[in-house]
Amino acid sequence: MPLGEFALIDRYFRAAGAPRADVVLGVGDDGAILRPPAGHDLIAVSDTLVEGVHFPVGSPAASVGHRALAVNLSDLAAMGATPAWALLALTLPRVEEAWLEDFARGFSALAREHEVALVGGDTTRGPLMINVQLLGFVPAGQGLRRSGASPGDLLCVSGTPGDAAAGLKYIQESDLRSSSSALADAWRTLQRRFEYPTPRVDLGRYLATIASACIDVSDGLAGDIDKMLAASRCAAIIDIDALPRSGALGALVAAGTLSRHEALRLTLGGGDDYELAFCVPAARRATLDELLRQGAVSLIGEVVVLENSATARLGFRSSRPGEALSELLETSAGFDHFAV
Ligand code: ADP
Ligand code: MG
Fold first, then answer.
1. What residues sit around ligand 2, an ion, with C-beta below 5 angstroms?
2. Does any ligand 1 atom lie closer than 6 A to the CB of residue 249?
3. With 60 as the cut, is the pLDDT of residue 264 above it?
4. Do 66 and 177 belong together in one domain?
5. Is the residue at 340 inside a domain?
6. What are phi and psi of 317, to 5 degrees?
7. Would the CA dihedral through 147, 312, 243, 59 be positive or negative?
8. pLDDT tier, 5 (very low <50, low <70, confident <90, very high otherwise)
9. Which domain, by its residues, includes 231?
10. To test the ligand 1 pocket, which listed residue (3, 9, 85, 101) has its Cβ within 8 A of the most ligand atoms?
11. Structural domain includes residue 147
């Protein structure tokens, strides 16, 4: 995008994000000069959003800017890291000032909330696509991984997974928008959970001190827990009755707009929540109980021995006899190992 490229960067991105003393040189040169704190490990993550793949065509630009950073903040949170510096590679079909202004506003508001500086990037012409690279740090040796869970650990999740997938359903299925006004409020709450996810950065930093393993839930709760268990060479039993459900999703189930089955499917198989799933050794139960009392996380199961690496890693229990878990889980997106 030769014409206007420098003016565009100058106008929308030079001052985006938070100022930081550890940015020796930011936007404007061939590269940024950054000064990591002594005694820390750098954690680097990158995620790309493609229009029509990761967000619906015509999404609000502020939401796209928010999500482009949020998905990366969520990855850093899962590593227990403190975010610091972002690089933004933007591919735009055309220069549309109103869109850029809203995009930069969405990106910058979240960056400032987490004290992230935008230190550089790239701007090119092409189909709408946003790549963000984010750097953060942890005290040396304290990076949280997927691979540390052991049998006996307690399995937990933050927030209320399934909300974002329900919100996306509302965005995509226009007939849902004719629902009654009480339900429209619930649907709009869920839509906001998709458009403006809350990366659990503070929780992740805290978990670095108590959790044995952690993953962020981007592709669906069951599938992402499965990935963490695979990395840890363990299995787990999930208690279906203990899965958290938001008031908004609950209202749709109570009204019969969604069946309990559909809601469970969204919770276990929906994506885009950017919550944290993690394991805590049973010896830290008292510390976990404090966290559970605060209401931001739920205890949903326990890690068990993987009997045979050829068998499924996830088992489920439910107090409802005959609940069709097997069929339910087979239709949960992004997940294909089942033991019911
Ligand atoms: P170069 O040709 O050396 O790659 P560019 O002309 O692409 O440099 O970019 C000039 C400066 O603007 C660089 O510091 C680069 O990091 C920054 N920059 C380019 N695009 C963006 C963007 N979308 N957001 C933030 N900084 C950007
Ligand atoms: Mg250069």
1. 30
2. no
3. yes
4. no
5. no
6. -130, 150
7. positive
8. confident
9. 154-331
10. 9
11. no
Residue 86: pLDDT band (50, 70, 90) is: very high
What is the average pLDDT across 48-65?
A: 97
What's the domain count of the chain?
2
CB of 333 closer than 8 Å to CB of 264:
no
Mark whether 198 and 124 lie in a shared domain: no
Of the residues 139, 167, 201, the one at which a domain ends: 139
Is residue 223 in some structural domain?
A: yes
Residues 80 and 165 in one domain: no
Q: Ligand 1 pocket check: which of 8, 29, 123, 133 to mutate, most ligand atoms within 8 Å of Cβ?
A: 123
Q: Is 193 helix (H, G, I), strand (E, B) or coil?
A: helix
Residue 333 has pLDDT above 80, yes or no: no
pTM for this model (two decimals):
0.94
Q: Is the separation of the CB atoms in 328 and 320 below 8 Å? A: no
Residues 17/22/25/28 CA torsion (nearest 10 deg): -10
Strands 314-317 and 235-239, by their bridges, are parallel
